[in-house]
Amino acid sequence: MRVGTRHSARFSGTACRALALAAALVFLPSSLLSQARKNPLAGDPGAIREGASLFRINCSLCHGLDARGGSRGPDLTRGVWTHGGTDAQIFHTITTGVLGTLMPANDLTDTETWEVIAYLRSLAPKEARAALGDPKAGEKLFFGEANCSLCHMVRGRGGRLGPDLSRVGGERSPRYLLEKIRNPNVDVAAGMMPPDMEWPVEYRTVTVVTKGGQTITGVLRNEDSFTIQLMDNAENLHSFRKTDLASLVYEPHSLMPPFGPDLLTDRQLHDLVAYLETLRGEPREAAK
Ligand code: HEC
Ligand code: HEC
Q1: How far is the CA of 150 from the centre of ligand 1 (A)?
Q2: Residue 235 belongs to what domain range?
Q3: pLDDT at residue number 25
């Protein structure tokens, strides 16, 4: 097949480049490497392999084993970059992290960082799933018929029972969003994350019964050894001393209702996800 011959023809060229590069790596001061604007290891099969294993160890926890998005980080294979898509910009993002988000600064060496970038570039972009939907229609649904804004805020507009979704498009993959809306209780992270990794549950549902016999279910906002605060469906904040409670139960389900096909058609679901994908927070300063 054509692809095969092209690949093997390229390989010897790459091997030469790899040799030249190995020599360069030995002699170049590392400061020069970090200033490289283009990935010196681009397309190098060895670098891609190394990058893949570095990625599994350092990044898959959030971005998923295959970089297609996990429970805590965006899909990195779509060719859409919130923080800039040039080699130098991605290098900068990986090294310094994104302030105010879960994306950490990394202490990979420059070579390792380029290897990870070579790996990311080697992953074929997935079909543009988000493009399946119409973000404008999704926005209307969000603030209208689907009632998402009852519980979720976007750019200061909406409710506060659930998490603020103003950055969710940069933080979550379309796959995660699709599954999450249909069934909030499904373990969306399963199969996207390395096994044995568990995140502390945020927005946990709790039910308390006071000694006076009052029952309240809400989202856990704060808890220490002596007190607990939760917010109910009407956004009332309740605060209790634990000694005043007859019982305290951590519910195994989300307070978000499932939006099955009876509530949202597939078309509407895709519109919503297309809209959520556009939510990437305030534009950040581009990497120099
Ligand atoms: C603790 C979770 C976490 C870890 C670990 C993590 N990331 Fe991220 N990463 C994120 C989040 C969340 C974002 C989205 C930041 C935002 O909201 O803009 C992100 C964003 C990025 C971006 C920018 C994407 C864009 O659209 O511009 C790149 C590139 C990236 N991560 C690469 C990596 C690499 C490579 C590693 C491993 C060396 C890594 N990340 C480790 C959570 C993580
Ligand atoms: C009755 C309140 C309520 C409504 C209505 C609601 N949600 Fe939620 N949502 C929540 C709560 C609470 C959470 C956090 C707990 C969880 O993750 O299940 C949540 C979590 C989410 C998350 C996960 C956020 C993340 O960063 O992981 C997404 C995405 C989301 N909702 C989207 C939607 C969309 C889209 C709609 C409308 C179709 C909607 N929600 C309607 C309460 C609600």
Answers
A1: 29
A2: 205-250
A3: 47
Same-domain check for residues 175 and 236: no
Task: Tell me how far the alpha carbon of residue 172 lies from the centroid of ligand 2, in angstroms.
Answer: 13
Which bound ligand lies closest to the C-alpha atom of 144?
Answer: 2
Instruction: Using a pLDDT cut of 90, give the percent of the chain over it.
Output: 52
**3 lies in some domain:** no
Counted domains in the chain: 3
The residue whose C-alpha atom lies closest to atom 24 belonging to ligand 2 is 163
Cβ-proximal residues to 186 (8 Å cutoff; 6+ apart), any chain: 179, 180
Is position 49 within any domain? yes
Q: Can you give the pTM of this predicted structure?
A: 0.68
Residue nearest to atom 43 of ligand 1 (CA): 103
Q: How confident is the model at residue 35, as a pLDDT?
A: 57
Q: Does residue 4 form part of some domain?
A: no
Q: Are 164 and 266 within one domain?
A: yes
**Which is more confident, 271 or 192?**
271
Q: List the structure tokens of 91.
A: 């290098």
Domain end: 72, 99, 123, which one? 123
Residue 33 is predicted with a pLDDT of 52
Q: Give the CA distances from residue 47 to residues 41, 88, 92, 108, 111, in Å, rounded to whole numbers and listed in that order.
A: 6, 17, 19, 14, 9
Residue nearest to atom 29 of ligand 1 (CA): 90
* Spatial distance between the Cα atoms of 48 and 121, rounded to a whole number of angstroms: 9
Residues 45 and 166 in one domain: no
